[in-house]
Amino acid sequence: MAQPSAAPRRRRWRFVTGGKAATGLAVVAGYVLLAVLGPSIAPYDPDARSGDLLQPPSAQHWFGTTHLGQDVFSQILVGTRGVMLVGLTAGVVATVLAVLVGVTAGYLGGLADDGLSALSNVFLVIPALPLIIIVTSTISDAGDLVVALVIGLTSWAWGARVLRAQTLSLRRRDYVEAARATGETTWRIIVFEILPNLTAIIASGFVGTVIFAVMSEITLAFIGISSISSWNWGTILFWAQSQQALAQGAWWWFVPAGLAIALLGTALALINFGIDEFVSPRLRSAGRTRVRTTDGHVVRMRVGFTPVLASRAVPAPRAGAVTPKEVGR
User: Fold this and answer.
1) pLDDT tens-digit profile of 102-128?
2) Architecture of domain 8-290
């Protein structure tokens, strides 16, 4: 009896085992763990003052202290929760709205498509960051959750347009028509036939929204728009800039927060690259295909390049030799 092949299972875990995606997921998982345990494992209260003013990194203060003697390492740990809360919450809200609007508009068509497409176009032209600034400046006690909801509610339109376009191309496929002919309900066709083929696009949109939300949260805190009473990486940069840490040579005040932002952005970008390689065979095999030429050399194929393989030089015929063309005569 033939045994089931293990290829589908390997295909299922190829995304997780990829180098880029695995590295990005590991870094993001570490940030999520710090967001959960950060306030508990922080060695000091981030608001507590001490007599160690503007001290460089040491055994007592790993990332140094501020002008008030506050521990920068504790501020980084406590501020991770706010950054991750805003990024993940905004990503979930925007992704859910994009899936609901985009897939529904693409599958149903007609008046539903026209109405939902018009709604997407309206939100597509709304400037997100100025709207976030207006909302957060109007609401005096706007916390991380309010900022996350505003970002999520204004960042779903582009993803909805992409999902609508993909759904329009999927709804007339043979397997969708077969499911419709067998009497499957609309929601079962959408959930079990269409959404699995949109997983990579949905995941990519989620990652992009998380990056935008994190950058927006840090930007709002850095320019002093959001509440500076709650710690996040942008708040640390705000106080460092307002107290002229660079002019005082206190590099430890702003460098750790900047590195934390850069590392998180790199991890999310690696996850996005991993998703692209997972769904695109051409990207997945880039640089791995080798072609052996007639003279024994190995040429590595790369995306975007068309190799020209030079063959061996054909020796000139000797004088008086009979060529194949003459034999054919």
Assistant:
1) 999 988 888 888 899 899 888 888 877
2) Orthogonal Bundle (1.10)
